[in-house]
């Protein structure tokens, strides 16, 4: 027997062929002393395997052994593909495997903390039935089992595609991948959300973002850079969209004259990404997620809508909202604006630009025509923020002044400010939260679902 076959590849074209698969015994159903069914799962795809006594091939003892397998044990199955006349319920593949040999590679405990069946059910299936609902803490406490569900598999396959497209797109656009330190001397974003630690006797922080060093890479003449790496925020609120550690997809680039060049990159990158996620390769993963957590496909335009912050404020005011024209939008206002934009422009993905300066970090460039505003933007999916970006202050004295005004201790960022004194080009960039992109593209309600081992204010294990 030559090669392994993947469960997802089993189809009627393989009828009568001998195949070899490895997966988990999801369910084991003895029918009699002569017969048993085992549903084998591999990466969220399942196939029904039929074991029947056959002289010289399958003994009664073997049927007995298989009937005693525990769920989630790792098994190796050699058998012949067959096509039944009736539809197969409880398996993704519409063929069966007539077992000739079955080995148990590793046996799981007879009782697991949660079952895949319970963890895979949608709210709709649970509603009205006496079925077990597995709550989020139980899922996260037993994350390795929860990850095995079709939706769990789908989410992280989609996440992998998002970071792959991010890297691939930026490489083809001439960006250089960099890796900046995560142990740094001071806060990079300002604010209190910083993990402080002792660095061999010196005070230090876990990086709140690669902000300072990605800009310093521009000072080091790498004209366009990007990074995929961990970002640490000592969030003290417990929300559906904040983690204490998340994956930042960061970009920084020289610009010729206007920060719209940075928004052009956002536009092309995300339209490419959404197109790719909607292609054939990700279809089964999106379907697996939607089966458990139904969602509508994301509505986006070929050319991303760019809406001025002031226009957004006006739309909210016209809809009867009370909003501060120079303040930040709160979560509720962002959602509301998302709905208004969808109604008016038919898109759930858009850029809001020219934010009030007062609500942006110290390194943000003020607008030259009105310094109450800044050359900055946020990007939204379904009314929630996934990206912040801006043109940066490249003039060292202004940068120092802005840092002081924002309450930053400039002695902790002196090497950063010095870098600007050695000559700094016009530049800008943006940061994307990977877990938020996946959460919002799939219309999921909680960021803990899209972080493999989430870290939030209450959780540091598993
Ligand atoms: P960024 O850090 O880039 O701004 P973010 O989405 O985390 O990204 P925040 O600044 O934390 O944004 O919050 C944006 C808005 O969301 C705030 O102005 C605030 O009104 C609201 N918000 C933040 N945390 C909470 C919370 N725990 N509960 C309710 N609203 C919140
Ligand atoms: P910002 O603080 O907005 O900007 O972060 C960028 C993006 O990261 C995501 N994000 C989070 N995701 C999960 N949990 C959190 N606690 C969390 N906080 C933020 C969001 C957000 O849009 N240096 C700038 C970026 C830049 O200007 O280049 C920055 O860090 O998706």
UniProtKB/TrEMBL annotation:
Keyword check for Magnesium: no
Organism: Linum tenue
GO CC terms: aminoacyl-tRNA synthetase multienzyme complex; cytosol
Record-level Gene Ontology MF annotations: aspartate-tRNA ligase activity; ATP binding; RNA binding
Domain Aminoacyl-transfer RNA synthetases class-II family profile stretches: 156-462
GO biological process: aspartyl-tRNA aminoacylation
Organism domain of life: Eukaryota
EC number(s) per entry: 6.1.1.12
Coiled coil ranges: none
Protein name: aspartate--tRNA ligase
Catalysed reactions listed for this entry: tRNA(Asp) + L-aspartate + ATP = L-aspartyl-tRNA(Asp) + AMP + diphosphate
Stated family: Belongs to the class-II aminoacyl-tRNA synthetase family. Type 2 subfamily.
Keywords: Aminoacyl-tRNA synthetase, ATP-binding, Cytoplasm, Ligase, Nucleotide-binding, Protein biosynthesis
Cellular localisation: Cytoplasm
């Amino acid at each position: 027997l030559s090669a392994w076959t993947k469960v997802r590849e089993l189809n009627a074209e393989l009828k009568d062929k001998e195949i070899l698969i490895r997966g988990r015994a999801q369910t084991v159903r003895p029918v009699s002393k002569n017969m048993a069914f085992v549903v084998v799962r591999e990466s969220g795809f399942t196939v029904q395997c039929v074991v029947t006594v056959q002289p010289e091939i399958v003994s009664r003892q073997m049927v007995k052994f298989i009937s005693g397998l525990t769920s989630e044990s790792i098994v190796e199955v050699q058998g012949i593909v067959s096509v039944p006349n009736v539809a197969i319920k409880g398996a993704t593949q519409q063929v069966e495997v007539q077992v000739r040999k079955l080995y148990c590679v590793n046996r799981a405990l007879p009782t697991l903390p949660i079952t895949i069946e319970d963890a895979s059910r949608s709210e709709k299936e649970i509603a009205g039935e006496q079925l077990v609902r597995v709550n989020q803490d139980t899922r996260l406490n037993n994350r390795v089992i929860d990850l095995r569900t079709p939706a769990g598999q789908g989410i992280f396959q989609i996440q992998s595609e998002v970071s792959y497209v991010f890297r691939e797109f930026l490489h083809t656009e001439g960006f250089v991948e960099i890796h900046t330190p995560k142990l740094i001397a001071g806060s990079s974003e300002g604010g209190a959300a910083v993990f402080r630690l002792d660095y061999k006797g010196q005070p230090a922080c876990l990086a709140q973002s690669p902000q300072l060093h990605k800009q310093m890479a521009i000072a080091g003449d790498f004209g366009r850079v990007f990074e995929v790496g961990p970002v640490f925020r000592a969030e003290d609120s417990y929300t559906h969209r904040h983690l204490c550690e998340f994956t930042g997809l960061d970009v920084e680039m020289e610009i010729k004259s206007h920060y719209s060049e940075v928004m052009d990159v956002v536009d092309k990158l995300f339209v490419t990404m959404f197109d790719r996620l909607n292609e054939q390769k990700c279809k089964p993963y999106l379907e697996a997620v939607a089966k458990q957590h139904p969602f509508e496909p994301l509505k986006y335009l070929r050319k991303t809508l760019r809406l001025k912050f002031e226009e957004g404020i006006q739309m909210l005011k016209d809809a009867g909202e009370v909003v501060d024209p120079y303040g930040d939008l709160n979560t509720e206002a962002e959602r509301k604006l998302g709905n208004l934009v969808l109604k008016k422009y038919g898109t759930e993905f858009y850029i809001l630009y020219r934010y009030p300066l007062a609500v942006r970090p110290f390194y943000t460039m003020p607008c030259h025509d009105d310094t109450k505003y800044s050359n900055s933007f946020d990007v939204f999916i379904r009314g929630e923020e996934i990206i912040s970006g801006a043109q940066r202050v490249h003039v060292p004295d202004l940068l120092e002044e802005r840092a002081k005004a924002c309450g930053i201790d400039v002695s902790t960022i002196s090497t950063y400010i010095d870098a600007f004194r050695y000559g700094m080009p016009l530049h800008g960039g943006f940061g994307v939260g990977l877990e938020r992109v996946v959460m919002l593209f799939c219309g999921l309600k909680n960021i803990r679902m899209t972080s493999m081992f989430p870290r939030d204010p209450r959780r540091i294990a598993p």
